[in-house]
Every structure is written in C-alpha cells, then in structure tokens.
C-alpha cells in the first residue's frame, strides 16, 4: 500500500517569526483559505492568547469553513506551578475551538534544567498531564518534541522517555523537531530507527513526523530522509520562512514527495497550484520572490545557453527534472549575449512574430542585442523591452509618440522638509503636440505621471496601467557617483505584467528609457487586442 503523507503548514506561526515577515489578520485568513484549497492537511494558525492578533485570527476562523484542512492551535505544556485546569496556556488552546491542537515540550535535558528550571521527572509529568487534559477536548492531538535531535545525541534515554510520556498522554502524532537546525541528513535514519523501536516497545501505533529547521541548509533533505524512514507527517512553511535561516520549505518538500517519491497526499491533486500559492504568501508578506527557488522560482525552468535551448526544444527532459506545468510554473528561454538563433527564434514564436533563421532581421537582432548588452542592458527581467527590440529590428513596431523634450526639477529649501519635484514634458502624437507638467514623489514618479498625463488624451487605456516595481543597480562602482546604472521597471494592467529596462550614466535617462518601453509595450498590446 502506498504511504500517505500529511503536510502540516506552520507559515502563520513559525513562518511569521522570520525577520521582516509580517501578516495582518486578514492576510492570515486569506492564506488559510488558499492552503485549504491547495490541499494542506493541517494549518497551524498561531499561539492563542499570545497576542491580540492571534486571538482575533482564531475568532474570525470560527466563521470560516475549511473543505479539507484541519486548523491547529499551538502552545506549550503547562507551567509546572499550574494544574492543567488552571493553566492559562491550555485554556487558551481550548478556547480557540480548533479541531487540532499541537503542544510542544522539552526533549533536551539542558532545557529542562536551564530554561524551565525544574527536575527532569517533573518535565515528564507536565508532558503527560498536559496532553491527557487536552485529549478529550480535541479530535487531533499532536506533540512537538522540541530540540529532539540535539536532546537525543546528549541523553537518548531521557529524550525517549519524554516521548513515552507523550504517548501516555494521548498524542496521536509525535513530531521530532530539529529546533536549532543543526542535524545533518545522515543522522536522521539511525535516530528514526531507534524511535520506531521505542514506540513498538511501548505497544503503541502513534505516528511519527518531523519539524526541520534550515540552519545547516539541510531542512528539505532531512524531511525527505525522515519520510523515507517512516515519517508520515512533515511540518514546514511555504517558501521556507521561519526564524533565523527558516523552516523546512514545503514548496520544495511537497513536489519532491509527490513527483520523486511517488507518495500520496491530498496536495497531490492540486500540484498546479504550488506556484501561485508560493507567490501569494510572498505578495501578502510584501516580500520579493526568490527567483532561484526550486520548483517555484522564475529561474527554476529558465534556459540561457543556445545549446541548452536547442536540446530543451527537442526534449525538455534533457535539462529539466520535471515539466514546469506540473507545479504551475512555466519554461522561460532567456535572451543574453550567450544566446544564439535558437533563443531568438523561440522568443519570436512566443511573441507571435514570424521570423525565419535566415531572415536578415535575425542578424540585426543579434547584433543589436550584443551591442546593447555591451553597454549594460540585460533582458532576463525585461522581456517586454526585448520584444520591442525585435519588432523594431524587423520594422513592424509602431511609433505611438515622439518625445520633443522633458525637464525634471528637484528643489529643496529646508533641511527639515522633503524636496519639491516637478517634471515637464513635450511630446507629439501624429503631429499633435502636448506640453504638460506634473508633480511627483521623486523625479521618476514625476516624470512617469507627466508622460501619462500627456498621453491619456490619445490613449485612455493607459489609465489602467501602473508601475509596481522599480530597481536600480550600479553597473560599476569605479566611477563613484558618475557610474553607469541599470533601471528595471515592472508594470501591469488588468490582464498582464511586464518588465522593461534602461541603462545610462544618468539615472533619470535610464528611468526614462524603461518607462518609455513600458508604455510602448502597453500601447502595442492594446493595439493587438483591438485588431
């Protein structure tokens, strides 16, 4: 019988301990709904009573119906001085009214002595009676054995004894935690084997799970080895967010379990939602996407060298370990100075441009590409600019407007007040000149607003376009403040988003180039849709 794996997500609790990672209550509810749709089995919502946001979240979730996932409240064993029925932590867990409760206890004797400052036997007692008190009130009871692997290495008999007490208390799953993230993959197997032997000695059929952290860059590997050793539950976070170096990354663990290990899980029915789930968490946390992330990164299925492109077009398996569509991602053929005709032809096909390998425009495109990249242009994050370059080289790019001139003014009169920024611009559309000005939050914003203001009379649909990201990179620091810079702009409208690029020793000029490409791309796209 094929092994079934439970995926336990703790993004909303452990993930939010990451530096610069923060979610509103509304964000947490939205992510919970999406994780449920994705097929996650357990969603850990937080520690009830720890802060007002956690209290509000669990209150809101009482009115949210989940189709598959079981919401879990998280907390610790009781305080030694409190009986279970008078322990505020345990009462808060029950007040959350979740179908699952996860509590953690100390496995490592050094933590019992130095952190809890109680006797080793007292720690065993609070593990058992905390779980025993909760057991009649919840459908699913999970015990997180904190610092288990470190504790096992230092005092295995005591570490196993803590699990024995958790079993007596009624835990249905024991999650072994690599809390400090220092365990290496080769250490997992013998420890799991000893734990499994111990569980049999107890006459129990309790399930085993793993909760890995990534301080040694081994969290994903440790999770997969634990599964191959018999673990049936993996606790982790979307995109690996978590304290210090993060938790086990579910966006890497899940596809490896489903596609590489051939095991069953509810998420296996929705793997094409993996990419969008990963992006949603990043967007709501207002954090950039890691383009190099396996499976869900923008570069995960990106091909740059001409030899690779040729091979991938013939058979994707030559340079891809799985089809990107399986996880909701896409294959990307990059354009760079290493590119050959294969890359350009692939892009032409993607853009709907009829281009033959022997077309004279091909040599013009490659020559222009290499000349521009020699100046510092890059098109890997600016495919809209490259499509415009191709169409211009082929002579089929419309001229939507002509710049007559622009001026940007920054005035600062007092040190304790922000600068005053204004941009003026003159341009013409089909011989009709427009001269306008606009104030902005900085020179680029002012220039962007002035250009749109001038063009809206001719192209009303520019109203729906917005700039969503703006990046500047110094290409060489050897010239100090006169160094050349590259500007990347990301824009979007109601149906798409696209990137454009500009390069100059003048940051305003580089920004202008990227902004002009962004608007030209939008106008070209609108023209194609209407024709």
What descriptors fit this protein?
40% helix; 16 strands; 17 helices; alpha/beta; 8-stranded parallel barrel; 531 residues; TIM Barrel
Percentage of residues in helical conformation:
25-40%
CATH class of the domain at 6-269: Alpha Beta
Give unreliable regions as ranges: none
CATH fold-type name of the domain at 6-269? TIM Barrel
Taking the alpha carbons of the first and last residues, their distance comes to 57 Å
Number of beta strands: 16
Strand content: 15-25%
> Rg from C-alpha positions?
29 Å
**Helical segment tally?**
17
Structural class: alpha/beta
Largest sheet: 8 strands, parallel, barrel
Briefly summarize what is shown.
With 531 residues, the protein is an alpha/beta fold. It contains 17 helices and 16 strands.
Structural notes for this entry:
The structure is a single chain. With about 525 residues, this protein is an alpha/beta fold. It has a domain at about 5-270: TIM Barrel. The chain is built from 17 helices and 16 strands. A hairpin with an 8-residue loop joins β11 and β12 (about 420-430). α5 packs parallel to α7 (about 155-170) and α16 (about 445-455) packs parallel to α17. It is elongated. The relative contact order is 0.07. The mean pLDDT is about 90.
């Amino acid at each position: 019988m094929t092994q079934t794996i439970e995926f336990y997500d703790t993004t909303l609790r452990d993930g939010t301990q990451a530096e610069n990672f923060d979610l509103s209550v509304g964000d947490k509810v939205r992510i919970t709904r999406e994780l449920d749709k994705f097929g996650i089995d357990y969603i850990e919502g937080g520690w009830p009573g720890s802060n007002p946001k956690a209290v509000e979240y669990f209150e809101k979730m009482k009115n949210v119906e989940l189709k598959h996932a079981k919401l879990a409240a998280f907390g610790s064993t009781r305080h030694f001085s409190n009986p279970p029925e008078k322990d505020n932590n345990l009462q808060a867990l029950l007040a959350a009214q979740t179908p699952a409760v996860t509590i953690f206890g100390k496995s490592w004797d050094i933590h019992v002595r130095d952190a809890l400052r109680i006797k080793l036997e007292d720690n065993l007692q609070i593990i058992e009676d905390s779980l025993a008190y909760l057991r009649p009130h919840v459908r699913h009871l999970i015990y997180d054995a904190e610092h288990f692997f470190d504790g096992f290495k230092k005092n295995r008999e005591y570490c196993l004894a803590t699990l024995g007490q958790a079993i007596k208390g009624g835990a249905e799953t024991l999650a072994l935690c690599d809390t400090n993230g220092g365990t290496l993959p080769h250490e997992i197997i013998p420890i799991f084997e000893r734990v499994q032997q111990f569980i049999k000695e107890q006459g129990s059929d309790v399930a085993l799970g793993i909760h890995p952290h990534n301080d040694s860059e081994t969290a994903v590997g440790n999770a997969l080895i634990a599964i191959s050793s018999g673990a049936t539950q993996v606790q982790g976070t979307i995109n690996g967010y978590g304290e210090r170096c993060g938790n086990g990354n579910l966006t890497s663990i899940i596809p490896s379990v489903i596609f590489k290990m051939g095991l069953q899980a509810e998420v296996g029915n929705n793997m094409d939602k993996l990419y969008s789930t990963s992006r949603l968490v990043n967007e709501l946390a207002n954090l950039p996407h890691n383009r190099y992330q396996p499976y869900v990164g923008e570069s995960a299925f990106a091909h740059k060298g001409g030899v690779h492109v040729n091979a991938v077009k013939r058979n994707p398996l030559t340079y891809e370990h799985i089809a990107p569509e399986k996880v909701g991602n896409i294959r990307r053929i990059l354009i760079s100075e290493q590119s050959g005709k294969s890359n350009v032809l692939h892009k032409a096909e993607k853009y709907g441009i009829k281009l033959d390998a022997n077309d004279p425009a091909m040599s013009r495109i490659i020559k222009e590409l290499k000349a521009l990249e020699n100046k510092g242009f890059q098109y890997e994050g600016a495919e809209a600019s490259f499509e415009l370059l191709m169409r211009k080289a082929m002579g089929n790019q419309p001229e939507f407007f002509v710049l007559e001139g622009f001026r940007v003014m920054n005035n600062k009169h007092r040190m304790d007040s922000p600068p005053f920024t204004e941009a003026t611009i003159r341009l013409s559309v089909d011989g009709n000149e427009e001269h306008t000005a606009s104030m902005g939050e900085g020179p680029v914003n002012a220039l962007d607003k002035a250009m749109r203001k001038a063009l809206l009379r001719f192209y009303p649909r520019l109203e729906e376009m917005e700039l969503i990201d703006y990046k500047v990179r110094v290409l060489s620091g050897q010239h100090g403040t006169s160094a050349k810079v590259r500007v990347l702009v990301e824009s979007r409208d109601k149906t798409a988003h696209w990137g454009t690029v500009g390069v100059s020793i003048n940051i305003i000029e580089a920004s202008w180039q990227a902004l002009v490409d962004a608007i030209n791309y939008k106008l070209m796209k609108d023209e194609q849709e209407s024709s």
